[in-house]
Known about the structure:
By secondary structure, the chain is mostly helical. The protein has five helices and no strands. It starts with a helix and ends with a helix.
Amino acid sequence: MNCYHYLKSEPNLLRFVRHNPVWYRYLSRDPSRIMEIEKEAKKFYGKTWPQQFEKASNKLSMMKMLVQLATMDD
């Protein structure tokens, strides 16, 4: 399967390449970098484990703050 068809079958990757056109050049010169683009796209969309953990941690601290505000005695 060539890069074009692979990107067409993966909408997130295609969108990533459109936002980062330098990847067109990288892939046209070396199609084996397709695995590298998947890693970069995960970073771009915030889907790496550390990014998801940080997002969950932020949500938890926000909920904690809201609970503290709701239970304050006026």
